[in-house]
């Protein structure tokens, strides 16, 4: 991503991460361009989720550096990374099931009450959240819980959103709603790094792509370049986006 690096909001350089006795990341080099969507792709188990969690500080990089905006955040605690403007949507959603949708959103708006304008925009993106605003989050369907998880990250405007497999296991209609909301977030100028296994969604939303294998980035470039090259897809991931269009 040589073109990205000139205005990257996030840069990882030679990042290594261990989890217990396992060496998961083997020198990750990654740049996320400001105001664009970068898709982090690859087979299961190659280190994509570990990369997001390392960026968020939930796991510690023992070698290498992570720069966010103008700051070196390699050793910055997770809460400080969140306050600096990084929003994280984990694969396990991370919602509070015994609290209402409204209470979940209130907790997510760390700098103050959720503004009416932001709330209305979230309602337009995810209409079920308006319907179940006063319901306990544990009573939502799987797709509605995922909407709430993403909406929590959107409760305030963030500089960077880290989103881990937002459409996994969802019905096609909900996937469409999710993709439309993420497109709108992108259109507002958000910077997004997203792990996604649905290649149709990746192609529709992504500006750039980085492909992981064995704990490192093995290819990076534009999403268009990857999406239009079936041989490259097969070489990198053993998959073809054409099957998902």
UniProtKB/TrEMBL annotation:
GO terms for molecular function: ATP binding; ATP hydrolysis activity; branched-chain amino acid transmembrane transporter activity. Signal peptide: none annotated. Gene3D superfamilies: P-loop containing nucleotide triphosphate hydrolases. SMART domains: AAA. GO terms for biological process: L-amino acid transport. Residues 10-239 form the ABC transporter domain. This is High-affinity branched-chain amino acid transport ATP-binding protein LivF. It comes from Pelagimonas phthalicica.
């Amino acid at each position: 991503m040589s073109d990205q690096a000139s205005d990257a909001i996030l840069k990882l350089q030679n990042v290594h991460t261990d989890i217990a006795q396992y060496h998961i990341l083997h020198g990750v080099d990654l740049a996320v361009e400001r105001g664009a969507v970068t898709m982090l792709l690859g087979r299961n188990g190659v280190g994509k989720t570990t990369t997001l969690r390392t960026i968020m500080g939930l796991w510690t990089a023992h070698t290498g550096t992570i720069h966010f905006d103008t700051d070196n955040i390699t050793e910055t605690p997770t809460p400080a990374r969140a306050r600096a403007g990084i929003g994280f949507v984990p694969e396990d959603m991370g919602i509070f099931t015994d609290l209402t949708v409204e209470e979940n959103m209130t907790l997510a708006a760390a700098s103050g009450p959720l503004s009416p304008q932001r709330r209305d925009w979230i309602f337009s993106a995810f209409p079920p959240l308006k319907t179940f605003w006063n319901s306990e989050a544990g009573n939502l369907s799987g797709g509605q819980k995922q909407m709430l998880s993403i909406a929590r990250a959107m409760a305030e405007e963030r500089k960077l959103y880290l989103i881990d497999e937002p459409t996994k296991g969802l019905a096609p209609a909900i996937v469409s709603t999710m993709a439309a909301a993420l497109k709108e977030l992108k259109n507002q100028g958000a910077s997004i790094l997203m792990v996604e296994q649905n290649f149709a969604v990746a192609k529709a939303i992504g500006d750039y792509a980085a492909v992981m294998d064995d704990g490192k980035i093995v290819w990076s470039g534009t999403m268009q370049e990857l999406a239009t090259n079936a041989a490259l897809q097969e070489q990198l991931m053993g998959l073809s986006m054409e099957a998902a269009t």
